[in-house]
Amino acid sequence: MLAWQPVPAISAGAPAASSSQLAWTDRPVLWFDPTDPQELPGVIRGGIPVCAPWFGHGPADDRNPQHGAMRLIDFTREILADSANRLRVRYRGSLPGVDVVQMVEMTDSALRLGLTLTSTLGHPQQVEAVWHSYLRVGDASRTTVRGVAGADLHNYATGQRGPLADDILPVRPDTDTVLQDPAGPLVLVDPAWRRRITLRTAGCPTAVVWNPLLSQDTRSDLTGTAWRDFVCVETGAAKEHAIELPAGRSTTLQLEIGVHPDPRS
Ligand SMILES: O=P(O)(O)OC[C@H]1O[C@H](O)[C@H](O)[C@@H](O)[C@@H]1O
């Protein structure tokens, strides 16, 4: 799990782009529960848990635990760079069938993640990997996700399926929506805080937009009661886009999260 705040631009001669970041450095970018990120045993909610080597219960819906074992294991950590405006860290871990390396770079303008899964099996396998990003917003009920045009949509909460013609996905009650092949980049528009969070990816044909607000039910757990404060915009390769990983081979995914003021929204 990561807790990232953009580093404020401090130089008087900083370029305009950096200066504008001062407008949002007082707002968190990732949501997490500071008292206990592990809300249930083994269920990390908040920050950016990684779902791997499968998402949900896997491509054939027959694997446990939910979202794979990666969010449950300990990693070795190496700090590769640590300066006033740049932190670069490498995490290594092992899961059944794959070794994983996650690179994390935090700067004053972006959070960059790279995830490499390397097969340790002697035969091909299907793997999935998804960054489960909990993005902090001012009011989830007013947010929309853009960059979704052309996606094949499946909302698992409502059963709605089909191609998405419009380039806008409102975050409503019952949003547990898998998007395959959105045009991208995905943009979370947050009118309450007048800003946009942009997710640029490589090797990530799948997105999932999830918020725990339900129209027919109430959740009394922390994630459920905090629904207004975050939207999960998850990115990776899952379900119909599970990765066929040959014996001994690697696959790499990349994600860059940036934040921009949006006075018009
Ligand atoms: O409760 P968790 O295992 O953390 O999963 C939280 C959520 O993750 C994803 O967004 C899934 O699409 C949802 O169906 C699930 O409820």
Automatic annotation (TrEMBL):
Write down the Gene3D superfamilies for this protein, in alphabetical order: 2.70.98.10
Q: Which Pfam families match?
A: Aldose_epim
Domain of life, per lineage: Bacteria
Sorted alphabetically, the Gene Ontology BP terms of this entry are:
carbohydrate metabolic process
Q: Which residues form a coiled coil?
A: none
Enzyme class, first EC level, given as a word:
isomerase
Family matches, as SUPFAM superfamilies: Galactose mutarotase-like
One GO term in the molecular function aspect is: carbohydrate binding
Q: Which residues form the signal peptide?
A: none
Q: What is its EC number?
A: 5.1.3.15
- Tell me which UniProt keywords the record has, alphabetically: Isomerase
Q: Name the PANTHER family on file.
A: APOSPORY-ASSOCIATED PROTEIN C-RELATED, GLUCOSE-6-PHOSPHATE 1-EPIMERASE
Name of this protein: Glucose-6-phosphate 1-epimerase
